[in-house]
Design a protein that fits this description.
Order of helices and strands: HHHH
Distance between the termini: 40 Å
Number of helices: 4
Radius of gyration: 16 Å
Structural class: mainly alpha
Strand content: under 5%
Length: about 120
């Protein structure tokens, strides 16, 4: 499970505002904290946020959540066209993958029978 801080840091690396091993600047940390809340709320509305808002993010979806966060913060950080295109391509894959990874493998439509 990835912490919210790790997810924010990954989004910051995608945006190019921080390198691996460095700490986020306070203004970038605040922006990504707000962005995480927005992304989490939209995922919750979609019914695919299977973790608590303040809890750890499942590893299988953490990079996809970071991609969604980076896309949301692109305008605020005014990234280059090449970086924007990379983030956009990750964002386009993120929602279908999150849906796929959080969907239960099997759910029976039949009522259980108690013998």
């Amino acid at each position: 499970m990835a912490t919210i801080e790790e997810v924010r840091h990954k989004a910051g690396r995608l945006l190019g505002v921080v390198r691996y091993g460095q700490a986020l600047k306070p203004e970038d940390d605040l922006l990504l904290t707000e962005t995480y809340a927005q992304v989490y709320d939209s995922l919750k509305d979609e019914g695919v946020a299977v973790w608590a808002s303040a809890g750890p993010v499942p590893d299988r979806v953490s990079s996809h959540v970071s991609a969604l966060m980076a896309f949301e913060a692109c305008d605020d950080k005014s990234v280059s066209n090449a970086r924007y295109n990379r983030i956009l391509s990750r964002r386009n894959v993120a929602m279908p993958e999150i849906r796929r990874l959080t969907q239960p493998s099997y759910e029976s439509l039949d009522e259980p029978v108690d013998y």
